[in-house]
Every structure is written in C-alpha cells, then in structure tokens.
Write a structure and sequence with these properties.
- The complex is a heterotrimer of chains A (about 550), B (about 290) and C (about 325).
- Chain A is α/β, with parallel strands linked by helices.
- Chain A is about 35% helix and about 25% strand.
- Chain A contains 21 helices and 20 strands.
- In chain A, the strands form four sheets. In chain A, strands 6-7-8-3-9-10 form a six-stranded mixed beta sheet, with helices on both faces.
- The two termini of chain A are about 25 Å apart.
- With about 290 residues, chain B is mainly α.
- Helices cover about 75% and strands about 5% of the residues of chain B.
- Chain B has helices at about 5-35, 40-60, 70-85, 95-115, 140-165, 165-175, 180-185, 190-215, 220-235, 240-260, 265-280, and strands at about 130-135, 140.
- In chain B, helix 2 packs across helix 8.
- The termini of chain B are far apart.
- Chain C is mostly helical.
- Chain C is built from 16 helices and two strands.
- A two-stranded antiparallel sheet of chain C has the order 1-2.
- Chain C starts with a helix and ends with a helix.
- Classes of the chains: A alpha/beta (about 550), B mainly alpha (about 290), C mainly alpha (about 325).
- Chains in contact: A-B, A-C, B-C.
- The interface of B and C includes residues 114, 272, 275 and 280 of B.
Chain lengths: ~550, ~290, ~325
C-alpha cells in the first residue's frame, strides 16, 4: 500500500451524526488527497448518503470535524462550502427543471463570479457541456432530459463550481451496463492532480473501476478501509454486504441484522394454510377471460410520453416479469395498470371489464394491489395500521386472519407492529410493503422494483417470499432491474425498451436471446463476463 | 393592584374560552393536515356558525346550545358543494390555487354578511348564559363553562375518530401520502371532502359558542382565523389534542395580556405569540403525534 | 441573446412611457389623473408582489405592512420635519427596507404556506398595534398639517415611483440575476449547493418589494391628507394586490399592468357599491383561478400565440 506524500485536501475527523436515538454516522475518519478517487460502500442504511450530506453541508454534524485544506468548515452552510470548492451531486438528480441546461450551469457560474463577462462565462459553459456530453442539449429544458443526461447535468453543475472536491452520490443507481460504462469514462475524465473525488456507491462495478481505495460503512461505522481490490474480495465484507451468492452460509451474526428477520420457512403444508388467507381464490374464469389485458396503451406525464402502445396479457395464476432499462417505462406501466395515471390511448381490461381511466381506488377494489416503487410506507401510521388500511371491505375476522398470515410470513413485522411504519430498515420496510399489498387479498399483485437499494442478502429473503406466493398460484407482475432473480421466478417475460415491448417470451427464451444483452448492455463489453447477464450490482 | 379574584377569574375565563378556540382551530388543523390547505375562509365559517346560532334562536326559540348539531350539519352541508365545485377541481394545481380560492370565498362571505346582516356587532344573548358561577376566588359566566365542556367533548370525539377508526386511518394516510393511499384503495377525494366538512362543522360549532359567550361582527373572521392559526401552530399541525392545549394556552395568555396591557391588547398578544412561535418552532411546541 | 433583446426593448418602452405620461397632466383633467395615480400605486405594489413570488417563491399577504409603514413615515416626517417630498419618499423606501430586514430572520424560517400566513399575521399585528398605541394617533390616525401638493404634482411623483418599480423588475428579470432568483424559487437547497445564498436572495427581493410598497404608501398618504390604521394597515391592500396579480397573471411581465388597469376600472364601475365591488372581485378571482390560471395576459398569450408576444411577456421568472 503506497502512501501519498501530499497533504490531504479534505479531512474528516471523528464525524458523528445522530437523529434522536439513531446514530446514522458513528466516528468516521477519512482523508482525501488530490488526484485520488475514493469509494465508500456499504449496505442500505449504512449512512453513505448521510456522509455526503455532512461533507457537502446539507446536514449539520452532531460531533466531529471537517477540514478543507486545514480549514475547519464543519459549521459552514452548504453555500459557503460550495464556494470553497466542494461540489456534490444528488443521488436522485435535482436539476432546476424549468431552466435550460445552460441556465442550470449559469446558476453556479454567476453565484461564484457575479461580474464575470458574459463571453467568458459562455466559453466556460460550452467547454463544460462538451466535456460532460451535453453540448447538444444546451438550450433544452432540464425537465425534458432522461435520467442519464440528468446525472451528467448534475456532474456538470458541480464542475461549474470549479471544485477541488467532488462528491458523487450513487451516480450509478438506475443505470444499465452501457450507461455505466459511459459514466465510468466521465468520472475518469474528471480526475486531475488538483481534484479529490469521493464516490458513494451501490454499483460495485463503478467502485472497482474508478476507486483506488475504498471504505466500507456498516450501520454508520467504518468497517474496513484499504485498496479496492482487497476490500471487494474480503470475506468479511462479502458477508456483510455482498451476500453469499448461491449458498446460504452462516452469516456473521452481529453485522447482518437484516438477515435475522428471515422469512418464515416451515413445512410446505403449513405454508399453504398460512398464505391461504392472503391469496384470492384462484377461480378459473368462464370463457378463459384473462385477468389483465392491456391493448394499445399509451401513457405519460404531462408533455413526456412514456408508453408508446403496450399490448400485454396476464392470465390468472401466472407470474410475469417486466424488465427493461431505466426510463423504459416499467413503473409508468405499473401506474397505468393501477390507475395512478390515466392512459391517453388504448384500453385496460381487468377480468374482461374495461376500466380505462378509472380512479386508483376503484381499480384497487377490483383486486389489483401495487407494492409500490420506493415502498411508500405511511410514517404517521404504525406498522399494523399500515397493514390494516389495505384490508378494505373485509370483516374483522378476515382481517385478523390476514394479519396473522403476514406476521407469519415476516415475523419481524409482528415484533414491531405498534411502531411507526418507517422506523425500520429498508429491507424491513420492503417486507411491510409486500405484506401491505397482500392484505387486500388481491387477485393480482404488482411488485415494483422491490430490490432497489437493498443488499443482496435481503433480496434473497424477499424473493423467497415471492417464491412461496408463486407456489400458491398468486397472479403477479414482477418489475425488476435485476434480471437474474426475475427470470428465475416467473413464467413469462416482457422486456420494455423506450416505452414499447421489445421482447416477449419464456425465461429460457429471453435468457438466450442476444437482443436482451443488447438492450441492457449495449455495444460495450460486459465487465463481468462470468456472471452472464447479471450486473455486478448489489 | 387588581385583587386575586379578578386575576384568577380572568385567567379562568381565558382558559375556558381557549377551549372553544381549540375547537375552532381543530377544524383548521385537520384540513391543513389532510389537504395541505390553509383555509383562509375558516374564520368566516366560524362567523357563519355564529349567525346561524343567532337566527336559529330568533326563529325557533330553541337555545343555540341545543341547536349545535343543526349548526354542525348546516356548515358540513354547505361546505360539501364548496369542496366539490371550488376546491376539488383545483386539486392537481398545488396548494396556492386552493388557498387563494378560499381567500376569495372569505372576502365574498364577509361582504355578504355586511349586505345581509349589516355591519353591527352582535351577540347571542341568553339570560342563563351570564349566570355567574363561583368557585373560590374564581367567577365566570356559566356559558363559558358550558362552551368549554362542549368543546372538550367534541375534541375528544374527533380524537377518537382520527386515531381509532378506519376513517381516521384513511385520513392520516391521505395526509401522509395521498397517491399511495389512493393506490391502496382509499377514496382520497371523499376523505378530503369529509375532512373539509368536519373542519367546517367544528368551525361553525365553535362560532356559535363564541357568539354566545362573546360577540361577533362580519369582520370577525380575520382575527379568528389568525387566532386559530396561532393555536394550530402552538399545538402542532394535525395534532387533535394539541389543538385543545394550544387553545387553552392562547386563551390564558390573551387574558393575561388584556389584563396587564389593556383590553385592546388581547389580540396583539395573540398575534405576537403566533409570530414568535412561527419564528422559532413552526412545527409547534408539542411534538406532532401520530394523529 | 433573447434576454438581451428583451432587456433593450423593455428599457426603451419604459423610457418612452415615462416621457409620454409625464405630460399627461397637461392634456387631461383631474378624473384621469386620479385614475392614473391609482394605477401607478397599484402597479408598484403588484410589481413588488410579483418580484417576491415569481422570483423568490415568496407569496405574501402582508402588503399592508409596508404600505401602512410608508404612510405613517411620510405623514410624520412631513409634519414633524417639513422635509421635501422627494426626500420623504426615499425615507419611506428606506423605512420599508429596514422593516423587511428586521422581520426577515423570523419570517424566512417559514417555508411555503407558513410564510404566507406569517405575512398575514404580521400585518394584523401592526394594525392592532397602531390602533392601540396613541403616539401615532391610535384609531383616529394622523392628519397632514400642510395641504398636500396639487394633483398633477402628485401624479408625477406616483409615476416616478411606478417607473422605478418597473425598472427594478426589468433589472431582476432580464439580467443574469434572474437565474439566481429562479434557482432559489425552484429548489432552495440545490441552489445552496451551487453556491447561492438563498437567504440573501430572498432578502433582496423582500427588501426591494417592501421599499417600493412603502414608497407607494407614502405618496398615497400625502394624497389622502389623513390616514388611520384600518385604511393603511387593512387587509384591503392584500386583497387588491392579489386580485391584480391573479387577474393579470402571476410572474408574467405585463401581468401587473393589465391587472392594475382591470382592478382600477372595476373599482370605478362599482364605485357606489363597495361591498358588491369586493364580492365581485372575489367571484372574478375564483373564476380566474379555475379557468385562467395564468391570468388575462396568460390567456391572451395562449390565444394569440405569437412568438414575439410570448418572448416579450414571458418573464423567465
């Protein structure tokens, strides 16, 4: 391990952040030297974004110090830190939507140098836009940009501050392999001898290819730090964060709390009776009418048209997957089915009934449940109330039975039944979201990106639950970015691309289809050939 | 130095009136929580309740206190078309459009009051109401105690409604995340409509009580709106029991202010307190409950 | 490019309008000067409101704080010190700015709706204080000891104030400052991360709007000759300003002008029925909010949809 002899540009000493009783960041020490890229990784809830917020100035520390070139900036507000040379991006891009791309950059330029001549500013802007691949959309409204472009804009805006420290907050999230390749190239181009870059990431490929050193955070505490290659192959790190792949080995008990909240695994007959109260009776409909049918559905948000004519059929008892790159329209499709957005064209049939344009609560009444992207747990309701609210038009006895079934499926929820719905880790909240969807005893459940932001260990548990439900012949639509897990579960697959169904077939067919690889990976070489189609994402 | 009897009676009166303020503020609070709407016509709903109680008495001879359910139904009933035709169509437009619409409704109502009822200050006078109750050094008019008792009862009922019933669950969920609630099957528009009606009913009932205990005029709406806002901020947004506590605190402080600085300063105390609390603790002194 | 052209056009239009209207008293009688005076006052107030809301996201219902302050400062300084009127108006502006600075630490902690409610509470507080504190005349108010200047003179003063207000808006909307304002309006926290100091930006808009409002209040007080708390600190000002900006179109460059014209003319038509006038204003507001949310100007622009018209009218705010 070679030590740099230059002084650290940014130092973090004994940083602590408490939210009431919760310690989000616990004694973190870091040094960033100019000319380096450092990574911070860790499971969901480890405090990675909080760290960025603390360094960038959006969050005030409870204790500890942050030093920029020896100067204590711990009490400086975000605007002063930006002026001092710290640029950060947001995990979910926050461009100024009603301004053009160029104007977004102007904000940084003019706040730093209010009297800079317009021509000089324009030159700098054009150079920046060229560098970040945005030159062709300079006068386009930020609102019209797709996700990858917005992330580029985030980076461009941070660069407009002429920063000496760049903080990148989960820039890889939601991108597919081809886009990640472009992103990695961009990150490399940012590095020069005067700049230090900190990358907080879930997408390990970015960390592997960009960062010389990285640190692992777990529950706000630094677990281990060192050269990236060593870290990523460490068993300890694997246990806590990467999951154990195919085997179910013993997990280090005190570092993987989520694994303790296991899904109930019992005898098959016991399982059947547990889930019976949650799964609507599978009634073969007369005339073989499909449970769900979409014909020529077009939908979007305001000006942006996302779905460009979708035809899709789901039979009772089927499990289908909807895959696709980010921005392909997967969640928009879920929203069109549940009524959260009205289709601008086409028909939506549930059990043969035309329900196009009906309000969400009416479609919910017909037996469609949506385990929403981002979970959407009600923080002001307890865990049990979150569950109960979904069981509508059912008598007290039935509700009680369903509650017991959900608690049986996810015992951790029973332990926390009177606690606030969001006072739990991400994985547990996802369990609550799944349980909530089931409480309606739905005919059709849509599981919308349930693995987003969760560590592989937790995903394993959740998909075990889904497998149990599939055995009960619950009709389900699984929307996923993680191709492997979805393919292993379902009967039929649709792949969306730019708002249309590009591929449709059985998992085997799709897996073997070279076009799938193209949709996800693009022309660039796959960085982890041994894993087949799976991203090296966690 | 005013004697202990006057001081304690004034504070007691303030506390009891504060209970009524709490009831009216409750209406504002739940609407704010569920619809993210500052109902700028809230004070005028209160005045509608006061006029309703007055004319109910005049036409039927029935005591306004007994007529409270009628007032509640009246306000609730009137507010539903208001919601359906004025507010619901603006639901997707952001909070300001609805707030400005209610602002317009407020100025329309005030001027209708002046046109129809004249600008006189009125009061719902009943003989028994002013009967002085004495307990030790404290003497208050009977109506204050009656008003307080009714207010507390209604507040407790609403609290039970919000925290323990299915409707209350739907209400809280709609307040937290309306879109998610709708996807789970909650008819959010209906919840909002009923919440708005409940809020108006609370305002109306409070208005009748205030009309009986105090006095009112067409332009009372503004000051009472601001009083209610002060209570909401003191007690915590969406916190039902907090509205009662906030009301009592405000009432007591207003009485003290009026006693020490002069009667015109009662409202000044209220406003100053409101601004202070807004400035330093906009989320209210009481932690926002899961209500 | 686009902004530069817009800037030049607006400055030119402003200069021309100023010179033309300066000679208005020489060609018309008192009635039109009265109207013109009212329009200038209202225009100033609407510009200030638009600046705060359209540029910094601050929706204010507290216009009367500053109108009232300007009124009382004007009368007291004329009565007490016999200062020349231009100086008095400047003093009013300074007073308005100072009050804004004074209340901003408290007021700016409030976001969104709470800020609006806070401005409302502040104006009520000031009104109640002025009614109860007798040094400023209490409920009866104050009288101007000397006769106010003649109407043509007053009109010209009001015109100057209105032109200054319009110029200020042009500066804020057509120069690089506009980008900073819009950033704060759209996303304060992201703006801070870009090095913008949101507090200062909001304060700037607030101080400017308040100074303009106070100057307008000052000249209004001089014209009235007698002021009292209900009139100068009453909610009427907020109602009128809100009507203007909604009718004209929030954030639109010509919105305040069209709105001011509309409101003043409506007031003239219903001058004998004050309650009906206000109720009618309320009804119009409701209808507009529902069916023409971008006001008359927005509606017209949508209908005409001439590119040039759009670039003239659409403030990037």
């Amino acid at each position: 391990m070679t030590e740099s002899t230059t002084a650290p540009m940014l130092e973090v000493r004994g940083l602590v952040k408490r939210y009431g009783g919760l310690v989000a960041i616990d004694q973190v020490n870091l040094e960033f030297r100019p000319g380096t890229i450092t990574g911070v990784i860790g499971p969901n809830g480890a405090g990675k974004s909080t760290l960025i917020g603390l360094i960038g100035g959006a969050i005030a520390p409870s204790a500890g110090m942050i030093l920029l070139n020896g100067r204590d900036i711990s009490r400086l507000p975000a605007s002063e830190r930006a002026r001092a040379g710290i640029g950060r991006t947001y995990q979910i891009p926050r461009p100024f939507l009603d301004m053009s791309v160029a104007e977004n950059l102007e904000v940084a330029q003019y706040s730093l140098a209010p009297f800079v001549p317009a021509s000089v500013a324009r030159e700098e802007r054009e150079a920046l836009l060229a560098r970040t691949g945005l030159a062709d959309v300079a006068s386009l409204q930020a609102r019209a940009l797709p996700l990858l472009r917005r992330k580029r804009l985030e980076v461009a805006r941070a660069l407009a501050l002429k920063p000496r420290v760049v903080l990148l907050d989960e820039v890889g999230a939601g991108l597919v392999d081809s886009e990640i390749t472009e992103l990695i190239a961009l990150i490399h181009s940012l590095l020069d001898s005067n700049t230090a870059i900190l990358i907080v990431e879930h997408v390990l490929r970015v960390v592997r290819e960009c960062c010389a050193r990285c640190m692992v955070l777990n529950f706000g505490k630094p677990l281990i730090e060192g050269p990236t290659a060593a870290i990523l192959s460490s068993d300890q790190v694997a246990a806590v964060y990467l999951g154990t792949g195919g085997d179910r080995q013993t997990i280090v008990a005190d570092t993987a709390q989520d694994a303790i909240s296991t899904v109930h695994v019992g005898a098959p007959e016991a399982e059947a009776s547990v889930l019976a109260s949650l799964t609507a009776p599978v009634v073969a409909s007369a005339g073989g009418v499909a449970l769900l049918q979409l014909a020529g559905i077009r939908a979007g948000y305001g000006q942006a048209r996302v779905l460009q004519g979708i035809d899709l059929t789901v039979e009772t008892g089927q499990a289908i997957a909807i895959l696709g790159a980010n921005g392909a329209g997967k969640t928009t499709l879920a929203r069109a089915i549940t009524g959260a957005i009205s289709p601008s064209a086409g028909t939506l049939l549930i059990g043969g009934q035309d329900v196009s344009g009906r309000a969400p609560h009416q479609i919910a009444k017909l037996g469609v449940a949506h385990c929403m992207e981002g979970r959407r747990i009600f923080p002001t309701l307890s865990v049990e109330e979150n569950l109960r609210i979904a069981a509508r038009n059912a008598d007290a006895v039935a509700v009680r039975a369903r509650l017991e079934a959900v608690y049986d499926l996810f015992p951790i929820l029973a332990d926390r039944r009177s606690q606030g719905g969001t006072a739990m880790s991400g994985g547990q909240q996802q369990m609550l979201a799944i349980g909530r969807a089931l409480m309606a005893r739905p005919k059709l459940v849509i599981f919308d990106e349930i693995s987003l932001g969760l560590a592989p260990i937790v995903m394993d548990k959740l998909y075990e639950a889904l497998a149990l439900l599939k055995e009960e012949r619950m009709t389900m639509i699984v929307i996923e970015q993680d191709v492997d897990r979805a393919l292993a579960l379902v009967d039929h697959v649709y792949v969306l691309e730019h708002g249309r169904i590009a591929l449709s077939g059985t998992p085997k067919q799709i897996f073997a289809d070279p076009r799938l690889r193209h949709i996800y990976i693009g022309a660039a070489e796959d960085a982890a050939p041994s894993k087949g189609l799976a991203h090296a994402t966690c | 130095m005013p004697d202990i009897g006057i001081i304690s009676s004034t504070i007691a009166a303030g506390v009891l009136l504060g209970g009524i303020l709490g009831l009216t503020a409750l209406g504002l609070s739940i609407v704010l929580g569920v619809m993210r709407l500052v109902n700028l016509a809230h004070g005028d709903f209160l005045v509608v309740g006061a006029y309703a109680g007055l004319f109910f008495l005049q036409f039927s001879g029935i005591d306004p206190v007994l007529g409270l359910p009628v007032v509640a139904l009246l306000l609730g009933g009137l507010s539903i078309p208001l919601y359906r035709f004025l507010l619901a169509p603006l639901a997707d437009r952001g909070a300001e459009a609805q707030m400005m619409t209610m602002f317009a409704v407020s100025i329309i109502l005030e001027n209708i009051f002046i046109l129809v009822f004249s600008a006189d200050t009125r009061s719902i006078a009943r003989d028994y109401a002013t009967y002085p109750l004495t307990l030790g050094p404290v003497t208050v008019p009977l109506i204050y105690l009656i008003g307080f008792a009714i207010s507390v009862t209604v507040i407790l009922v609403v609290h039970w409604l919000v925290s323990s019933t299915a409707f209350g669950r739907d209400l809280r969920a709609s307040a937290a995340d309306a879109q998610a609630a709708a996807t789970l099957g909650v008819d959010v528009k209906r919840v909002q409509m009923l919440t708005f009606a409940l809020g108006a009913a609370c305002a109306g009932v409070g208005g009748t009580l205030i009309g009986a205990a105090f006095q009112f005029s067409p332009s009372s709406g503004g000051p009472y709106l601001l009083n209610s806002l002060a209570v909401v901020v003191l007690g915590g947004l969406g916190n039902v029991l907090g509205a009662l506590v906030g009301g009592v605190v405000l009432g007591a402080l207003q009485s003290v202010g009026g006693l020490t600085l002069g009667d015109g300063y009662r409202d000044v105390v209220g406003m100053a307190l409101f601004l202070l609390v807004l400035a330093f603790r906009p989320e209210g002194f009481l932690a926002q409950g899961r209500t | 490019m686009n902004a530069r052209v817009g800037f030049s056009i607006e400055v030119a239009a402003l200069v021309i309008a100023f010179f033309v209207l300066w000679f208005l008293p020489d060609v018309t009688g008192d009635y039109w000067l009265q109207l013109g005076f009212r329009i200038c006052i209202y225009l100033t107030l609407a510009h200030g409101w638009n600046l705060m809301a359209g540029s910094a996201g601050l929706v204010s219902l507290g216009t009367s704080c500053f109108v009232g302050l300007g009124a009382y400062v004007a009368v007291e300084s004329l009565n007490g010190f016999g200062l020349p009127l231009p100086l008095v108006l400047v003093l009013c502006g300074v007073a308005g700015g100072l009050l804004a600075v004074l209340v901003s630490p408290a007021l700016f902690r409030l976001r969104g709706l709470y800020f609006t409610v806070g401005t409302l509470a502040l104006s009520e507080l000031l009104r109640l204080l002025m009614v109860n504190v007798s040094t400023f005349g209490g409920a009866t108010g104050l009288f101007l000891q000397e006769d106010p200047p003649a109407l043509p003179v007053l009109f010209r003063y009001a015109l100057v104030v209105a032109v200054v207000a319009s110029a200020a808006i042009t500066l804020c909307a057509r120069t690089r400052v506009s980008v900073i304002f819009r950033a704060v309006r759209d996303d304060e926290d992201a703006a801070a991360q870009m090095g913008v100091r949101p507090f200062r930006v909001k304060l700037g808009a607030f101080v400017l709007a308040s100074a303009l409002g106070a100057a307008a209040g000052g000249i209004q007080a001089v014209k009235l000759g007698a002021i009292e708390p209900y009139g100068m600190f009453g909610l009427q000002w907020a109602i009128d300003v809100l009507s203007m900006v909604i009718i004209g179109g929030v954030g639109l460059r010509l919105g305040p002008l069209i709105g001011a014209l509309f409101v003043v003319i409506l007031g003239e038509l219903l001058a004998d029925y004050p309650e009906a006038h206000i109720a009618a204003a309320g009804l119009i507001l409701i209808v507009l909010i529902r069916f023409a949310p971008h006001g008359i100007v927005g509606f017209a622009a949508h209908w005409l949809s001439l590119k040039l018209l759009k670039s003239l009218k659409r403030v990037p705010a």
